[in-house]
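Researcher: Let's try something more involved. This one mixes different molecule types, so please make sure each is placed in the same coordinate frame as the others.
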Amino acid sequence: MLVFDQVDYHYRRGVPVLRQLSFTIRQGEFTSIIGGNGSGKSTLAKLMNGLLQPREGQVKLGQLNTLNPEDLRGIRERAGLVFQNPEDQFITTSVHDEVVFGLENLRVPGEQIADRVNEALRAVHMEEYAEAMPHQLSGGQKQRVALAAVIAMKPAILIVDEATSMLDPQGRQSILDVLHSLHRQGMTIIHITHHMEEILSSGRVLLLSRGEIVFDGTPSALFGNVSLAEHSLALPFAVRLHQALGLRAPLCADWKETITGLWSMS
Amino acid sequence: MVYELKDVGVRINGKDILQSVSCTLQKGRWISVIGQAGAGKSTFAQVITGLTPFCTGEYTHNGQSLPGDRRGKRTAVPQAGYVFQFPEQQIFETTVYKELAFALKVKGAAPDKLDEAVKSVMGQLGLPESLLQQNPLQLSGGLKRLVAIASVLIAEPELLILDEPTAGLDPLSRIALLKKLQAWQREKRRTVLFISHQIEDVAEYSDEVMIFTQGRLLAHLEVNELFLRQSKLLEQAGLPLPEPVQLLRWMEAASGRSLEPASCREEDILRLVRPVWQSRGLHHGG
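Model: All components are placed in one shared frame. Result:
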């Protein structure tokens, strides 16, 4: 369980980035975090795994507290963070070594490393690229390697900060498929995104605006009750279609399924 | 102002990155460049602007051949401005003012003209003047991108090349930026080469579309021709159809009718589809 308790954060004194944030993310949830540019999403991600510490309040992961330096190692083992630009986190010259690096740092016993690397690369469908150089891969492949390096460490929570924003549609879909597959296996997923269609299949959405959470609920409730334009966001096509055709069917990520069902009933 | 490529090829480390590309970029057109990752889009744009030398073929600007290319030299292409995918790849000055003024300063513009041009371009992109003395590299991702675009627009290029200019922007900032760029392009009758993975934006803003696959130019068509009549080319290049066009195809299949929207833009497609849906008594949940 990840708990934010009245968390404040600023980079420069007098310019608050996050204000009085309180929420709990339970194990096994798939939560999307949305918000306009500068709303504080990336700062929030860094607070989640202890890369930043709150100025006020506290962030706890189970019994561990990011304010306790002795807890940080445990927090980073349990909460894995994937960044927007995978090149920010590559440091070795092969895909295999990239995944090994984090495991060695965690002092995973040598005899377990090979299995963990293979398992992680299989999960992101990159097992054939183990010997490739990370920098020579496509954007989607690089991002999958970055994901593999994090999931090999078997975090309880995976935090993905706009990891799909630079990718082509196939690359984006491949990352989303991996996230949903990991979620089905029980991993807690926190997905930070600007792509509104990506949040339709989340169980829960947090909307961040000027450093505060202004909505916490399901995607349907968000689209039904919140003026997204006020927060620099726009409705995804599935919702625009719902509105344009006056559909009262439940909102579904796959709009074709919805209209096919209604059409066949008419 | 016309840029023309004939059978242009680029080979890097023994690998063909672009093969036999022929095209004409006409004045006053918004031309989108699409293709999967690694299809050759960015290399094509870099050849156009002279950042990447080509090995074979011919490149002319208003009928004048651009020399020096075959020996691997880079040739500055007249009147072409390039906005890189990551603003950090082009920003190097210590204040926003210096960053914006740089292009005109090297051309020898007088200080009062510089001030005027900087204010004008900031106004066009909606950048507040309070940013002028700030370090551009310390701005948020969205503002940094606007500064990078402004620093190119200020030189008023005839051809503006935008490599994924909206990646990382929130939806409203993305729409606002594209509308501003389109207004600039139409008002000044400039050519825009727009590289994007956002297929819905390509359908919404383009006049023409170039599709690349495996280093080759698969097609160069008017936007409506591509999305409404030759959409199989997208499938061939491994690209998705824009969602409104998918809706149109679905509706044609379900109703057994051929539907001809005014354009491939979402607004025009929804306008056409709505009465077909309602004619089945399906509005308000059917």
